[in-house]
Amino acid sequence: MVQNRFLFFSIFVFLLVGCHNNSHLRTQRILKPNEKSVSISGINNFGAGERNYNNRYIFTQTGVLGSRAELSYLKSNGQSESGPYIGVGIDQSSYDDPSTGIIAGYDYRSYLNKNSNIPLKMGGQFEINVTDGGNFDQIMAHIRPSITTTSQEKEFYYFGASAIYAFGKQVRQIYSYSSSSGYEDELIDYGVSSLGVGATVGFEKSTQLYYWENIIPSYQFQIDISFIRNSFRTDFVLPDGKKLESNYGYISNPIFNRESENLLLVGAGFGMNFISSPKKLEPVIVPPTTLWPNYNTAPEYFDPETGLPVKPDADKLFNPETGEPISPSLNETFNPETGEVVRTINKKELKQNKESEESIKNKAILQARSKNRWIQTNNIVYGATSCLVYPVGIPASILYTELLINSSFNELNPFYVALSTEEKRVYRKAYKKEERSLRRRAVYQTQAACLGAWFLFFIGLDGGL
User: What is the pLDDT of residues 32-58, one digit of tens each?
Assistant: First the structure.
């Protein structure tokens, strides 16, 4: 009974037609390195409509395709996933004729807290909407940053938050009448921008229908609820003595430049995900070269209290009276048998120690740069996303940068493991200092570029529309 109601609700939602978009369906599972996913989805958005009293609103279409079908491709590198997508759709307004169009975009999402109980996906989509305007094409850019939880085999529900930003120019044909020139038609250029925030909830489940399980690994249903605000701007001024005409007669006091109220937009989509895993290489079994035991292996050491194996530290020294470990100073040397200070290191030896310390720092800096070379793209995405959801994004990006959340520092690095206690401290400090510097450069510079772009955009709106 519940399934029948759910099916009826899904069909009812898809019969409704929308004039905006706030939803994209992609697999919410964490993909393994080199794993690929192809998704096919149908999405419909409804709502975000306005009451057009006496047809005074001349512009109502945003140029974003609300009802759409999408085909997407994703490939994972183990830390993130990305890939292109295409689609077709309809922009349906309550007061304008519907427009068909095509979509071309790109997905990028990075994996956060991948090894925790709540892994996340953070990124977004950037797309271009091209709609048919009769004798001309109309282009709109659409950006949707988001952060969501992931789906798993047993916990298949997911949720998250998103933002919407769309901008571009549209063309509208109007008909006017004057006693001197009679009936005329002309094309008006107008700028459109949309801004909004919303929430996402959905589920992704594996298909359990015999042989279909290998063909369609998972199916997905998702609902997005957003509040958006549209803005329409134009330089057109209706000449004195002219009247606009519509299907309902003449329009008195037409409104060209305006900004809508907060509009409720609800999106629903259903999709199928085809996941392709890389082929596993069969392990190569190497036959033993001899039946005699190998006596050339390094000796093992064990803790006398617990009996567990421990790794010896050749640089660790102990107090001969208490037996407690002591940390050597860079300016002193100790008798390895008694632990007593033998002599103070001279200036030449001290210089050598400092040179050794500098080499460790340089090694840490090089490894930090090499490790973060692939993560800098994620940091740039974080910086751009924080601008779009600035009330929460800016403080979150500062915490992410300054506290080194999700740091790339690895204590199991073979070079780091082989260092002494003092050398590890030097390495760790230099590595995290360089990593923080790289994050600041990527995140803060991206935010500065976004701020400049926003400034120029609003200057353009104020002066050019």
Answer: 898 999 999 998 887 766 766 666 787
Q: Which of 18-32, 72-86, 145-159 bottoms out in mean pLDDT, i.e. has the lowest?
A: 18-32
Q: Which amino acid is at 27?
A: T
Q: Is residue 461 part of a domain?
A: no
pLDDT in tens, 107-155: 999 999 887 888 999 999 999 998 876 555 688 899 999 999 998 877 8
Contact yes or no for 356/348 (Cβ under 8 A): no
CB atoms within 10 A of CB 329: 12
Angle 389-22-6 from CA coordinates, rounded to 5°: 130
Angle at 421 between CA 420 and CA 424, to 5 degrees: 80
SS3 (DSSP) at 273: strand
Asked if residue 465 is part of any domain, the answer here is no
Question: Are 176 and 197 spatial neighbours (Cβ–Cβ below 8 Å)?
Answer: no
SS3 (DSSP) at 97: coil
Q: Helix/strand/coil (H, E, C) string of 190-257?
A: EEEEEEEEEEEEEEEEECCCCCHHHHCCEEEEEEEEEEEEEEEECCCCCCCCCEEEECCEEECCCECC
Q: What is the pTM of this model?
A: 0.57
391 Cα distance to chain centroid: 17
- For 99, the token pair is 């427009």
340 and 360 belong to one structural domain:
no
Range of the domain at 426: 349-455
The answer for 398, left when phi > 0, alpha when psi is -120 to 50, beta otherwise, is alpha
In the DSSP assignment, the letter for residue 280 is P
Evaluate whether 26 touches 76 at the Cβ level (below 8 Å): no
Token pair for 17: 């037609």
Burial degree of 78 (CB within 10 A; 0-12, 13-18, 19+): middle
Cβ–Cβ under 8 Å, residues 222 and 243 = no
The token pair that represents 427 in the structure block = 């390495």
Q: Are strands 67-76 and 36-47 parallel, antiparallel or unpaired?
A: antiparallel
Is residue 122 a part of any domain in this protein? yes
User: In which element (H, E) is residue 385 found?
Assistant: helix 376-388
**What share of the chain in percent tops pLDDT 70?**
70
* 10, β-bridge pairs: none
